[in-house]
Design a protein that fits this description.
Helix content is about 0%, strand content about 30%. With about 280 residues, it is mostly beta strands. It folds into three domains: about 80 residues, no CATH class; about 100 residues; about 90 residues, no CATH class. The strands form four sheets. It has an eight-stranded mixed sheet with strand order 6-7-8-9-10-11-12-13, with no helix packed on it. The protein has a five-stranded mixed sheet with strand order 1-2-3-4-5, with no helix packed on it. It is elongated, with a radius of gyration of 31 Å.
C-alpha cells in the first residue's frame, strides 16, 4: 500500500519545529511487511524524505538518499522498547522492537529473540521452533535451542551454546549437545590455575603423566587443590594437608595436596617417595 499526502497544488506541506516534528508531508508512504533496501531508489520514484513502514518489525524509515542502486533508508527510533510479536510464516514469535528485518531470518514459532545484527542475513536470530537468542549475529541450531554471545558456530546437534567468534570467523566458547556431551575449547596449562577449574578430555590426554605401576596417572602443571581429575586408577586415595600431615600408609598413586608447598603430589610405592606432577621427589 502507498499513501501519498499532498495539498491541492502539490506543494509540500511542512511544519516548523514543535508541530509534532512532522515535516514534508508531501511524500510517499510505503506500508509493507518488510524493510526497504538500497534498490528502493529513484528508478522506482522514491524521493528523499519518503517514508516506509515495516509492519513485520514495527519499524519506520525515511529515505535519506535515493541514488540509483545505492539508496539509503534510515530507521526512525519511535521511542518504543520491549518485544514485538511477529509472524514470518512459521507462526507467532517475539523479537525486540526496532530491529532491521533484513538482518534476521523469519522468527520461529514461540521463539524469543533478544539478539542484534548489523548485517543482512536470513539465518540470524531465533528462527527455530521455541528457540531463544541473546547476543550479536547469532544463529539458532534447531528446535528449543538456546544461544548467547556472538558469531557462533551453528552446529545442528547443539542445544545450548555460547558463541565467541569474530566477524568472518565463527567459534564457540561452550557447547551442550543433544546427546548430553559438554564441549569446551582447547585448554592450555596456563588456563587451569584456580582451585575450582574444570578440565576436558583433550586437556587430560595431553597432560597426563604415568607416575607408577598400574593405571595411575597424574598431571603436568599446577591444577590447584580441588581441580584434579579422578583419573582411572587401580590404587587411588586423596587427601590434603601439611607436609608432615601426609598419609602415613599411602597406596601407590595416592594423591595429596601439600598445603605447605601449595602443590599437588602423588605417592610412588616403588621407591617410597612423594613426587610432584613433573616426577620430582618432594
Amino acid at each position: 500500500m502507498e499513501l501519498v499526502l499532498r495539498n491541492d497544488k502539490g506543494i509540500p506541506l511542512s511544519y516548523v519545529e514543535g508541530d509534532n516534528n512532522i515535516i514534508f508531508l508531501n511524500r510517499k508512504l510505503t506500508v509493507i511487511n518488510s524493510a526497504p533496501t538500497n534498490i528502493k531508489d529513484e528508478s522506482l520514484s522514491y524521493k528523499t524524505n519518503d517514508l516506509w513502514l515495516d509492519l513485520y518489525s514495527d519499524s519506520f524509515y525515511y529515505c535519506e538518499d535515493n541514488t540509483l542502486n545505492n539508496a539509503v533508508w534510515k530507521r526512525i527510533n519511535l521511542g518504543g522498547t520491549g518485544l514485538t510479536q511477529q509472524d514470518g510464516g512459521n507462526g507467532l514469535g517475539w523479537r525486540l522492537l526496532n530491529r532491521t528485518s533484513i538482518n534476521f531470518g523469519a522468527i520461529g514459532y514461540g521463539a524469543i529473540d533478544f539478539s542484534e545484527s548489523d548485517t543482512p542475513n536470513s539465518n540470524f536470530g531465533a528462527t527455530d521452533y521455541r528457540s531463544f537468542t541473546a547476543g550479536f549475529n547469532i544463529t539458532t541450531t534447531g528446535e528449543y535451542s538456546t544461544w548467547f554471545g556472538k558469531y557462533n558456530n551453528a552446529i545442528a546437534t547443539i542445544e545450548f551454546g555460547i558463541g565467541n567468534g569474530i566477524s568472518g570467523t565463527n567459534s564457540n566458547l561452550f557447547e551442550i549437545h543433544s546427546s548430553g556431551v559438554l564441549k569446551s575449547p582447547t585448554l592450555a596449562l596456563t588456563d587451569i590455575t584456580h582451585d575450582k577449574h574444570f578440565i576436558n578430555k583433550e586437556y587430560f590426554n595431553a597432560n597426563k603423566l604415568n607416575i607408577g605401576e598400574g593405571l595411575t596417572t597424574a598431571f603436568r602443571g599446577d591444577l590447584g587443590k580441588e581441580s584434579h581429575d579422578h583419573a582411572k586408577s587401580q590404587h587411588f586415595t586423596s587427601s590434603d594437608g601439611t607436609t608432615l600431615g601426609r598419609p602415613a600408609t599411602p597406596m601407590n598413586g595416592s594423591f595429596h595436596y601439600d598445603t605447605d608447598l601449595a602443590i599437588p603430589i602423588w605417592y610412588r610405592s616403588s621407591n617410597d617417595t612423594w613426587i610432584d606432577a613433573l616426577g620430582v621427589v618432594v
